UniProtKB/TrEMBL annotation:
It catalyses: L-aspartate 4-semialdehyde + pyruvate = (2S,4S)-4-hydroxy-2,3,4,5-tetrahydrodipicolinate + H2O + H(+). This is 4-hydroxy-tetrahydrodipicolinate synthase. SUPFAM superfamilies: Aldolase (SSF51569). The active site is at Y135 (proton donor/acceptor), K164 (schiff-base intermediate with substrate). Pyruvate binds at T47, I206. The gene is dapA. It comes from Salegentibacter mishustinae.
Length: 292
């Protein structure tokens, strides 16, 4: 579990102009994250536009990241859904070579009860060959995994080792941290709340903005984990504007605009997502010019 303390980065999927996967850009992106000191990488999460990738493309992304990473950083694979049987089948039949854990989102759209969420992850835990990190993101799933439910899951299933908590609610995050076992990883899924959650007892972040400014964001998280809030908050406030900007028109439109401004990728997304407006792109460009 120590592999997932610190800064994890939810990788985008770069596209060429014809909207095919840009393998070279993805390789360069992985290399940049490693060189900049992040702690682990998350493949095929929401930020990767995984909902609009087909099976062959997902495998291409996996193969590219695993090969480029070459066992240097721990890798986490996003694999979840709202059909429990299908998720379990994928876990039982998949080849997860190169990965150390699975990030599995709480069932979306169906709006299960807390008991339904518990039973879903009970089945997923039984099927998974790798440790699991839960993903609570009510803004996308339309249902909130309550701290009491996560605590129940944490205590009942040994191979569920943590949660990416992205409810955007600091009170809920503190209640969660206070309830779960001490070795259960509470990982921020909200870039703006990363530092306060870490200082409250969380174990870091699975971040979007860290993909664009990895060295600085990783340093902030490290300072938080070391119990150095003053220095950590200096970095937080320095980066705060960028977090507002990259989420202003949704994810990953913002982070792709930022990475395109840095010359790392071409700014292409797949429908139904569209690129950031010119006004937002200009604001992101202005931020980067002044960021030192």
């Amino acid at each position: 579990m120590k592999s997932f303390i610190g800064t994890g980065v939810a990788l985008i999927t770069p596209f060429k102009e014809d909207l095919s996967v840009d393998v070279q850009a993805l390789e360069n992106l992985v290399e940049n994250q490693i060189a900049s000191g992040v702690d682990y990488l998350v493949v095929l999460g929401t930020t990767a536009e995984s909902a609009s990738l087909d099976k062959k493309e997902k495998q291409l992304v996996i193969d590219t990241v695993v090969k480029q990473n070459n066992k240097r950083l721990p890798l986490v694979l996003g694999l979840g859904g709202n059909n429990t049987r299908v998720v379990c089948d994928e876990l039982e039949s998949g080849d997860f070579s190169g990965f150390e854990a699975i990030l599995s989102v709480s069932p979306f759209y169906n709006k299960p009860t807390q008991e339904g969420i518990y039973q879903h992850f009970k089945a997923v835990a039984a099927a998974s060959p790798l440790p699991l990190i839960l993903y609570n993101v009510p803004g996308r799933t339309a249902s909130n995994m309550l701290p009491e439910t996560i605590n129940r899951i944490a205590r009942d299933f040994d191979n569920i080792i943590g949660v990416k908590e992205a409810a955007g609610d600091m009170v809920q995050a503190m209640r969660l941290i206070s309830l779960v076992p001490k070795d259960f990883l509470v990982i921020s899924g909200d870039d703006m709340l990363t530092l306060p959650m870490t200082l409250a007892g969380g174990k870091g972040v699975i971040s979007v903005i860290a993909q664009g400014i990895p060295a600085e964001f990783s340093k902030m998280v490290s300072l938080g984990l070391e119990g150095k809030p003053a220095k950590a908050y200096e970095l937080h406030y320095k980066m705060q504007r960028s977090i507002d900007l990259i989420f202003a028109e949704g994810n990953p439109a913002g982070i792709k605009a930022l990475l395109a401004q840095k010359g790392s990728i071409k700014n292409h997304l797949r429908l139904p997502l569209v690129k950031a407006t010119l006004g937002l792109q200009q604001q992101i460009e202005d931020f980067l010019k002044n960021f030192k």
